[in-house]
């Protein structure tokens, strides 16, 4: 993080389960939430599109040729099938209803996919799955850069700002 630091946010956050237990009905709800948190100017990163998960007015067309997402999934969730139908059939779930555990895993994977795809330097998350000793080196080998807890990212940003103003 240097003097050209920028704050980016994966727009997959719009598809995550909200604190009230539900999901946003459209992308504008997510944008309004960001505005309310004084984050309206943050650069939003478009995730890969998935039916029933992402908002098609703010996502990229998914391509099977992109193996990065599958590699991230295999590291973070080795016991969960990558494809929804495979996951559903393995557990006897009705394929027409996305399971929230699989959806959450997909959102986690797409958050890091966005970070790597858009050349982020520091991935900030409080999710301990990303920080596991058995996973962090593998994720960094894919291009994640540093993976920090929010408090550590704040300390890094503060130190970076202090260094850029002192010299």
Global mean pLDDT: 88
Structural class: mainly alpha
Termini Cα gap? 16 Å
- The run of helices and strands is EHEHHHEHEH
Strand content: 5-15%
What is the β-strand count? Answer: 4
- Strand order, sheet with most strands: 1-2
Helix content: 40-55%
Low-confidence stretches: none
Radius of gyration: 17 Å
Number of domains: 1
Count of individual helical segments: 6
The largest pleated sheet is described as: 2 strands, parallel
List the helices and strands and how they pair.
Layout: E1 8-10, H1 27-36, E2 43-45, H2 68-76, H3 84-91, H4 100-117, E3 122-124, H5 133-141, E4 146-148, H6 150-166
Describe this structure in words.
- This is PIN domain-containing protein.
- It comes from Undibacterium oligocarboniphilum.
- The protein is mainly alpha-helical and 167 residues long.
- It has one domain (8-166).
- It is built from six helices and four strands.
- It has helices spanning 27-36, 68-76, 84-91, 100-117, 133-141, 150-166, and strands at 8-10, 43-45, 122-124, 146-148.
- The chain has a two-stranded parallel sheet. Strands 3-4 form a two-stranded parallel sheet.
- Helix 2 packs across helix 4 (100-117).
- It is globular, with a radius of gyration of 17 Å.
